[in-house]
Amino acid sequence: MSLSAESDNDDTSGDRSYCFIELVALGAAVGAFAGVRYILNPEPPMLPHVTGRQWVQMNLQKEQKCYDNFRMQPDDFLHLNDILVRYHGLQSTQEFDSLEGLGMFLWACATGQPLRQIKDRFDRSLETVTRKMGEVAEAMIRFSHTVITPKDPTYTHVHHKLYKFAPYFDGCIGALDGTHIPAQFDHNDRPIFLNSKGDTSYNVLAIVDMDMCFTYVGSGIAGSCHDMAVLWECQKTAYFPHPPRGKYYLVDSGHTPQKGYLAPYRGTDEETMEGHHFNMHHASIRSVVEQAFGVLKAKWRILRGIPHYDQDRQAKFIIACCALHNFVMACKDARQPATNITGAADYGTSAWVDANAETDMEIVRRMITDGLYSNHRS
């Protein structure tokens, strides 16, 4: 073989060796880069699967978690479940028990979750979530008839919070007001539910007693309706607690005068010393309904903006949240030690109430005004 041929073979062999070394180096670099990528962006670990029922049970084992997600103590949750199952038709099946259904409903009301988020959290089909939410809502409506009601429909006793105004507000049995609950609607329904601020909402009327509990809730009326129209509509319902003879609710100045509803002065009457003094006491007592709305909306966040459910379901959510408010208040009161309030609740006020039973509300207001101002000056 010639020297030239040998030289060509050596060059070819050298080139092949060099290429092989390059490939090995490149492979090592790729492997190293892949290792770095794995370290910087590791694959997420497989988490253990937690069913909806297990998630509810986990929350019930810790008071703070239970309150954060369900807005009540574990014992109260179990007590409510027992009431709904025993008396109001909430049922368990082999695939879905009542505890999971109630937990699903309370979580939705407490956090304002729409259906698809509930579906993901409880790992259920959208059809199952929709059906179970409806079943719990129906049970809650039946339950609401037992808790959203006056404790004593005859109002035999005067509430202790009215003692300092005695006997002038002895006929007061609570405060009435309306509030707008924002909600999402289909495009075609939006004009009906537009309120004066340009938002879609329900105009909800509520009556609250002096314990800050709801005794009536009128839900489902469009936000475009005037407050008086809402009241007139609610007064037609079977559950509306009309004030007994000689008793009345405190209302705002926008209400049309009618027996059983005491409004503050407005206009020139409010500018007088007597009128201003009456309005100050009237507002002090009537603030209980504003406080109740504040607590309600702070605890049940779905009322800050109800997601897109059908309208009947949305209206039931509002009533259910008010029923839950009363239930939680009752459970809290039951845990408190009994206190002895100075003065008996049945002190003699019947003469004052009976004397004004058939009197026009304008005259009743004037009599209260004169009595309050006379005491103030003495």
UniProtKB/TrEMBL annotation:
This is DDE Tnp4 domain-containing protein. Its main location: nucleus. PANTHER family: DDE TNP4 DOMAIN-CONTAINING PROTEIN, PTHR22930. The keyword Membrane applies. Belongs to the HARBI1 family. Residues 176-326 form the DDE Tnp4 domain. InterPro entries: DUF8040, HARBI1-like, HARBI1_dom. One of its GO terms (molecular function) is metal ion binding. Keywords: Hydrolase, Membrane, Metal-binding, Nuclease, Nucleus, Transmembrane, Transmembrane helix. GO terms for cellular component: nucleus. Its cofactor is a divalent metal cation. The keyword Nucleotide-binding does not apply. Residues 50-141 form the DUF8040 domain. It is found in: Nucleus. The chain crosses the membrane at residues 20-40.
